[in-house]
Amino acid sequence: MVGFDLYPLQSWCRFDSFGDVFAAQKELVQLASGKPTFQWIEARRMDCNDPRLDPTPETVRAETWLAIAAGAHAIGYFPNDWSPEVAAEIAREKREIETLVPALTQPALDARAGGSSLRVGARELNGAVYVIVVNASRSPASDTIVVPALGDRTLLTLDGTGSVAASAGSFTDSLGPLEVHVYVAPPVAL
Hints:
- The protein is α+β, with helices and mostly antiparallel strands and 190 residues long.
- The protein has 3 helices and 11 strands.
- The chain has helices at 19-32, 57-69, 84-104, and strands at residues 2-5, 37-42, 74-78, 112-113, 118-125, 128-135, 141-146, 154-157, 163-165, 170-175, 180-185.
- The strands form 3 sheets. It has a 5-stranded antiparallel beta sheet with strand order 5-6-11-8-9, with helices on one face. A 3-stranded parallel beta sheet has the order 1-2-3.
- The protein is globular, with a radius of gyration of 16 Å.
- The model has no long low-confidence stretch (mean pLDDT 95).
């Protein structure tokens, strides 16, 4: 397994460089040539003393799903003495990721967004298509998400509270700052 750490908040001291978590993971997946990959996620203050740069549950969630959308097979959190709020978010992420492990270990599907700050990853397992959309910015964003394997299907949110309809492999999505949407499109009925 090949992994790395990239801490935009606590190593680079940058307020809004979350897209680099996705881009670097994509690059590692290519370099790893089929080997499983992982990424460390920053979980508390380390090097940058500006409180606006402290990792929060929202930044931990966004960085976690950016790495997974880009192909990470595993996630680590560093350092291991985080706040109770971040601990609760890590536990939430663990539960969600565990439900998706069989799908997340599948090869990536063609998946993309236009020129916005939205980052997209998709996998297919047993005919179901799993789509992860993450807003890599602290500003709201909307975009057309293209996943050709979807065709004309309805996608349900992982928690079952929302849905979107894909037409010809695309749909429009709107996310708040650092928001994550994880969707599942059930297999096509025969």
